[in-house]
From TrEMBL:
Protein name in the entry: Preprotein translocase subunit SecB
Organism of this sequence: Candidatus Thiomargarita nelsonii
Family per similarity comment: Belongs to the SecB family.
Molecular-function annotations in GO: unfolded protein binding
InterPro entries: SecB, SecB-like_sf
Biological process according to GO: protein tetramerization; protein transport
Origin superkingdom: Bacteria
SUPFAM superfamilies on file: SecB-like
Name of one Pfam family that matches: SecB
This protein's UniProt keywords: Protein transport, Translocation, Transport
Lineage: Bacteria, Pseudomonadati, Pseudomonadota, Gammaproteobacteria, Thiotrichales
């Protein structure tokens, strides 16, 4: 039988154990500073390390760039964060850990990335830029194995 946490929910076998900021940068373009940021034009990127069986961890990075693809923007922004996830090897099949890091982990880290975009753009005087929320399907072990 699965162990439940104090709220009665079952914990996922992979847990975020550390979150680090790798890069926070914003460059205001003075001649365009009165323009509204265009959040329809942004680039997301992500990647992950190899699984470390000694520490039972895998590191996943996610980042965003805003303003590099548009000519008249109020700012150029780049943020990159790193999450370190610990895997319960007794409850999660290791053959799927890289697929999980590629598909699921960026979705777990995305709210932290959104907060940094909002906070940094707000501190630069732009009222806080919000990245959109995504509608994503629910993943399970069976959906990971078939992809």
């Amino acid at each position: 039988m699965s162990e439940k946490n104090q709220n009665g929910y079952e914990n996922h076998p992979i847990q975020l154990r550390a979150l680090k900021v790798l890069e926070l940068s914003i460059k205001v373009i003075p001649e365009h500073s009165q323009l509204e940021p265009n959040v329809e034009k942004f680039s997301l990127f992500h990647g992950h390390s190899e699984y470390d069986p000694k520490d039972k961890t895998i590191a996943v990075r996610i980042g965003v760039e805003i303003g590099q693809e548009v000519k008249e923007v109020p700012f150029e922004l780049r943020i990159e964060i790193l999450g370190v996830f610990e895997v319960d090897e007794d409850k999660f099949p290791l053959k799927f850990v890289h697929k999980w890091a590629e598909k699921n982990a960026p979705l777990i880290l995305y709210p932290y990335l959104r907060e940094h975009v909002f906070s940094l753009s707000s501190r630069a005087g732009f009222g806080g830029t919000l990245l959109p929320l995504f509608q994503v399907p629910t993943f399970s072990h069976s959906s990971i194995t078939t992809r």
